[in-house]
Design goal:
It is globular, with a radius of gyration of 22 Å. The protein is mainly α and about 450 residues long. It has a single domain (about 20-205, about 220-435), classed as MFS general substrate transporter like domains (Growth Hormone, Chain: A). The chain starts with 19 loop residues before the first helix and ends in a 19-residue tail after the last helix. Helices cover about 70% and strands about 0% of the residues.
């Protein structure tokens, strides 16, 4: 069976400037900005505590609100395994704008409906947004500069998480009603999103040198996805298991940042979200972006595993230091804010270093060193779907697991446990791929054909 040739790529208007560095700066600016703005439609609602709202189904209103949105986001990741991996480049930006527009319409519905019925609107808000990352990532993969470009993209969700909360908190401080605040925040980010979406359309496809270095990235059909997963199932499962633990902790730290900061001795400081995440972003992006200097794909793959292990070490160090006798007794009124700020920065670095390494390097260099037909969208959405499924489970069980001391003790205990598990799984993945070798296994090199069977 043979496949029909892929349609010729549509011509893309040239970027301003002719050299590769200017093109890279344009591309990373467009990707960073587009995904940064998406967070303005997803995260501002978490800046509110919703203390005035009633208990819903035995859980706090905010817990149910976060769970509802994450369930939509999780379902979007499962849908994205197929949709994003099969997406043609020319359709990415129109679909992106359609998805974000649908999310904003859901926030309007959230403002208009009374509680608790408006929780369904948060599910509808998360449902389209989960596919935005894969659409943006598709513009950056398969290039010699992919790690640097993708590190810039990942910087967006590190800093945007804090900025979007700061915007939400600022709107609340200036009198915007709690349930209207997420919709108004989306309007604030909408004009910038349109500009960055236009910039995405001006990014040209990878050139011949990129393809020679990283392999051509093609849409994946059903049989392509099954073959890739089957050939590397043990190693991919270990990496995805580690990513599952990271997703749970990163999401808890992000969605319940106000509660964590309050437990650490901060309250009423909307700028604290942005201050901590800016420091995290600089460290994480700098370290992960350096992978672009490693030309050998296999060596870069294992260097990324090393960076991930460094992240677990930093996070573990922060947790142990916080738990040490006297570490939180600097003031008679409670925990030391200075120590709390340091803990949050160390946790941010420790969680985002491996999380971003998987986004920027591990899967990118995995495809490059094996030569498999595929794209980052498939691997990332396979991992994200499992990660967010785990987060939903934790959210549903959180009220039972929490103790009376509040959210912070629950989070710190869970963090220590999951960091140990994630590190163990990552080491197992290291061993598997060391044993597997790095022989390229393109379908044509095996004498096989690439079928286009649908799942």
């Amino acid at each position: 069976m043979t496949t029909s040739p892929d349609p010729a790529p549509r011509a893309v208007p040239p970027l301003p400037g002719g050299d590769s560095w200017r093109r890279s700066i344009w591309a990373v600016t467009a990707a960073f900005g587009a995904y940064f703005c998406m967070y303005g439609f997803r995260k501002p609602f978490t800046a509110a505590s919703y203390e005035e709202a009633n208990i819903v189904w035995g859980m706090g209103y905010k817990s149910v609100a976060v769970t509802a949105q994450v369930m939509g986001y999780m379902l979007s990741k499962f849908i994205g395994i197929r949709v994003v991996s099969e997406m043609e480049p020319r359709r990415r930006v129109p679909v992106l704008l359609l998805l974000v527009g649908s999310a904003e319409a859901a926030l309007l519905l959230h403002a208009l409906l009374p509680a608790p019925w408006n929780l369904a609107a948060l599910f509808l808000n998360g449902l389209p947004l989960g596919m935005v990352f894969g659409l943006v990532l598709g513009f950056l993969e398969g290039r010699r500069m992919t790690e640097a470009l993708t590190a810039g993209l990942c910087a967006s969700f590190i800093v945007a998480d804090g900025v979007s909360k700061s915007v939400g908190a600022w709107l609340l401080e200036h009198g915007v009603e709690t349930h209207w605040m997420p919709f108004v925040a989306g309007l604030v980010f909408a004009p910038s999103l349109l500009v960055f979406a236009w910039m995405l359309t001006r990014i040209p496809p990878p050139d011949h040198a990129d393809i020679a270095a990283r392999c051509e990235r093609l849409p994946m059909r059903g049989l392509d996805r099954r073959r890739l997963l089957t050939r590397y199932a043990p190693g991919l499962c270990l990496l995805i298991g580690s990513y599952l633990c990271l997703t749970i902790l990163r999401s808890l730290r992000a969605d319940f940042a106000p509660e964590i900061w309050e437990g650490l001795g901060y309250s009423g400081q909307s700028s604290i979200f942005t201050q901590s995440e800016l420091l995290v972003m600089v460290g994480v992006v700098g370290l992960n972006g350096l992978a672009v200097l490693i030309h050998d794909n296999r060596r870069a793959f294992f260097a990324a595993l090393g960076a991930a292990c460094l992240g677990f070490l930093l996070a573990g160090t922060g947790l142990i230091a916080w738990a040490a006798p006297g570490a939180t007794e600097a003031t008679a009124a409670g925990p030391s804010p200075t120590a709390g700020f340091g803990l949050m920065v160390l946790l941010g670095l420790g969680l985002y270093l491996p999380y971003v390494a998987i986004h920027t390097t591990l899967f990118e260099r995995f495809l490059a060193m094996t030569g498999e037909r595929g794209n980052l969208g498939y691997l990332m959405y396979l991992a994200d779907s499992v990660g967010y499924l785990g987060y939903v489970v934790v959210m549903l069980a959180r009220e039972r697991w929490m103790v009376e001391e509040g959210f912070l003790p629950f989070f710190l205990r869970l963090a220590l446990l999951l960091i140990l598990v994630a590190a163990g799984l990552l080491i197992g993945g290291w061993y598997y791929f060391r044993q597997k070798g790095s022989v390229k296994t393109r379908p044509e090199e095996r004498g096989e054909e690439s079928h286009e069977a649908a799942v």
